[in-house]
Amino acid sequence: LLLRNPKDLATSYYHFSLVFSPFPSYESWDSFFKDFMAGKVPWGSYFNYLSEWNKYIDNENVMPIGFEDVKENTYLGVKKIVEFFEFPLNEEEIHAVVQRSSFQSMKKNSKETHGAFGDVLFRKGGVSDWRNLFAEKHNLEMDKMYKEHLEAIPLGKKLKYDVYCKD
């Protein structure tokens, strides 16, 4: 289960909706943010999604891993995934996966791997881009929603909200 902090998720989701024509289009970030917070976007509420997944956090077939954790230490993230799926990879092969799965590598090869859709999928590949969109009112609303729905649950703690979602 790949997790992402809700501020960066909303930001990426907004940019994705701007270029992916099957998604509803929004005239502004504010209109998107309102729908995102109300769960009126494709796939519904991210807060409900994580709350539902939290029921399975102790299931041996579920491994939650944070996007931000993988960005912090890609090698360790890939190694955890390899071990979880019991792939028989040695250290050299794991390093090769890390190299091929870097954002720069995937973006560079996106035309070959994803065709025209590659431009839609590979935008920045970073963390904390939410700071470029969120006004104080967005921060306050998201902080409140996080506190009400996710702060007390194990999956909410794995988001490292205080690290990635605070100024």
Automatic annotation (TrEMBL):
Spell out the family assignment given in the record's similarity comment: Belongs to the sulfotransferase 1 family.
The question of whether Cell cycle is a record keyword is answered with no
EC number(s) per entry: 2.8.2.-
UniProt keywords (A-Z) are: Transferase
Gene3D superfamilies, per database record? P-loop containing nucleotide triphosphate hydrolases (3.40.50.300)
State the name under which the record lists this protein: Sulfotransferase
First-level EC class: transferase
Gene label: Sult6b1_1
